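pinging the channel bc i need a second pair of eyes. not urgent but kinda urgent?? the chain im working w is below, pasted from the shared doc
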Amino acid sequence: MCLDWFVLVLQSGLFVELFQHTFSQLSADGEAPDEGLLEGFLLETAWTTVSGRRKTRALANLLDPEWRVILMTIAIVVEPMRRLTSFFMKVSHMDISAPSAAFSPAMNCINPRASMIWAALSYLSSVLEAPQLCSRLCLIFSQRGCVTFAEWQRKFPSDIERLRKALLAVHSSTWRREYWYLRTELEVFSVGDMRFSAAERESIAKNIITKRSCCLRPGVSREFVKVARTTATQRRGPAADCAILSIEDVIHVLMGYAFTLHCIALFISLSTACVEAQHAVNRCLSLSGCCHITTLSATSLLNAVRSSFSKFKGEHQKNGRVAAAEFCTTSTSERPFGV
């Protein structure tokens, strides 16, 4: 909402008028104006810090068409990302026991027919394919005094190139970091999505089964494929040759777990906690304002390794406790009576 309000007042020219009116009474020596002139504005602002060069620079940016075009371009490009962030923040606090839609958010994210991520990608693709049909771009080229997109494209090709690069960067990042990632991690749950036809679900199952175990993501996908192969082998009987296990048999077994996959998907929560943690690390490093990108990258990598090591250490300690308990139980049961 803050960005919407800022774009609105900037487009209407109200922000520039408010800014000029607020600082118009600043004297050359940096003394504050009469408080009566500033009633309704930020009275706690240190006026001496915004006078002089800062005031001149701020007004120059507000009146500079180049700066306004860049700002409007950012507002248009990040708009779908703001919707996605709101969606993930909403579902991260969703209660699975509360009445909700028939399908889980995780299952919706990997289904192109219901995915908000896919909708954002489609919107960005449509702007890239036919920008002249996107009515929201008038917010950008109106800053140049152009009436139509064709006029803007002819007079300011650098603006078009900047817009194209920004759209491509956001589109590729959304595809790789959100849709492709969730699709790879949760692909097996599409087998339980009854919005797909039987032929489509069978094709998805075949695509999963034909992959090697090392190519499957560790977790639900790999374990379900392992169970499906084991079950298909057991159903063939001990006399059957396991070397010629039919893929169709494994697909049939995996398709039988459709309802189980549908129920498990309800317990998968989507969150932006990992992103917020990474932002917190970067924010702590950039307080001085002079941190190099290599330092940020190295610290981010170190933070990821430390997190993985902590998880491994916890699992190792847990397995050690379980093994010790089993050893104590076995040793006690094997002692002679009365000892």
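so The mean pLDDT is 75. and Residues 196-265 form one domain. — does that match what u expected or am i reading it wrong
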